[in-house]
Design goal:
Number of helices: 8
Radius of gyration: 40 Å
Largest sheet: 7 strands, mixed
Order of helices and strands: EEEHHHHEHEHHEEHEEEEEEEEE
Oligomer: single chain
Distance between the termini: 114 Å
Structural class: alpha+beta
Length: 383
């Protein structure tokens, strides 16, 4: 007879057993330990790949455009803390970027224009007069227009100011007596800012003319304070008497539009007008003291690092060739402007001016010839 096995029914957590005698027994089944329910796992934080700062991207582009080697650029970037992989990717990949390719096309056009300027500069250097500015007593209107104004050539006229009473009158004592109580503006604290000319609005100072005159007389050689064209001294009603001591040159200038186009310069020995070019033609008449003027033809512009406005960051008196190596190619024409002389500063000619003694000058832009030009000046540079 076959043994009948007990019937076991498992209904966790119980196990029910029914034997052949229909006897029921219950047994609790062992239970696993109780665990806290698991929290859903957080997705891993996504770390963006490192990015090269825009300043470095601009630096790489600028140096690639002037054909610096990839090795030199990568080495410089790594030395300055840029990840080597990031540096290699940027330097080797930038030439495939459409923005960079557009920049290359524009650069080629700029280089063509610069090559023309350099050829003109080479040709001009062949002339026996390339390093001189002629001194001539007088030129007729047509002579001046045909030989200098229209030809964009400087000249010094030595006989135009013979009738100026200012040559004898304009001493510090005379100006103090006649105009000492007039409130004037000057450029001040220039020694504290190498970019004083660019930041001219930050250097405006208002004072009595007599106080400024006393300062000039006792200052010695300094560039700290200077009364310049931008101070508009001759626009002041109280200063109109100064025109009585001048004779505006009718062969070249329009006396009816002298307001706002005639400018007064007065300062101590050592005052400097930094290297720049003007966007118009100018007559500079020297009344008192001597001035050193360094003239540089516009054909040499590619050597002057002009990255903002009409200014060059170079100090011709002490050029930093390590920072501005192209300036070694510059050949300036240096002249001393004496009292009673007028120099014609043609539009676009670069010049640096330093007063060798206490100096008074008057500049004019009211020519009877066209004197308005369309300039495309850079505005992205930093000194």
């Amino acid at each position: 007879m076959t043994d009948i096995q007990p019937l076991k029914i498992t209904l966790p957590p119980l196990q029910i057993t029914l034997n052949d005698g229909q006897k029921v027994s219950l047994q609790w089944l062992p239970q696993p330990p109780i665990h806290e329910p698991q929290q859903p796992s957080q997705p891993p934080e996504i770390v963006p790949p490192p990015q090269l700062p825009d300043g470095w991207k601009k630096w790489v582009a600028a140096n690639k455009l002037i054909n610096q080697s990839d090795e030199a650029l990568i080495e410089c970037m790594v030395k300055n803390g840029i990840d080597v992989k990031l540096a290699i990717e940027e330097v080797t990949g930038i030439t495939n970027q459409p923005y960079f390719q557009a920049g290359q096309e524009i650069l080629q056009k700029l280089e063509k224009l610069e090559s023309l300027l350099q050829i003109q500069n080479q040709l001009a250097a062949l002339s026996s007069h390339s390093n001189t500015i002629p001194r001539i007593p007088f030129l007729s209107k047509d002579e001046f227009l045909d030989q200098y104004y229209s030809q964009n050539k400087p000249v010094i006229l030595t006989g135009l100011m013979n009738n100026w009473a200012a040559l004898q009158r304009w001493t510090p004592e005379y100006l103090k007596e006649k105009y000492g109580n007039v409130s004037i503006q000057v450029q001040g604290n220039r020694n504290a800012d190498p970019n004083y000319e660019i930041n001219l609005e930050q250097h405006r100072k208002t004072m009595l003319f007599q106080d400024y005159i006393d300062w000039v007389v006792h200052a010695g050689e300094t560039n700290d304070y200077y009364m310049v064209a931008n101070n508009h001294t001759l626009n002041r009603e109280e200063m109109q008497g100064l025109f009585e001591d001048m004779e505006i040159f009718p062969e070249y200038l329009n006396p009816d539009i002298k307001a706002g186009r005639t400018f007064f310069w007065f300062g101590s020995a050592g005052t400097v007008t930094p290297l720049h070019h003007d966007p118009i033609n100018i007559f500079l008449a020297q009344v008192s003291g001597r001035k050193l003027i360094k003239m540089i033809p516009p054909q040499q512009t590619p050597f002057l690092y002009n990255t903002i406005g009409v200014f060059s960051p170079i100090d011709p008196a002490n050029p930093d060739y390590s920072r501005y190596p192209l300036y070694r190619n510059v050949r300036s024409i240096d002249v001393i402007l004496h009292p009673g002389e007028v120099i014609f500063l043609p539009v676009g000619w670069w010049h640096y001016v330093k007063a060798l003694e206490i100096s008074i000058s008057v500049s004019f832009i009211n020519f009877i010839f066209p004197n308005d030009y369309d300039w495309k000046n850079p505005s992205f540079g930093h000194y």
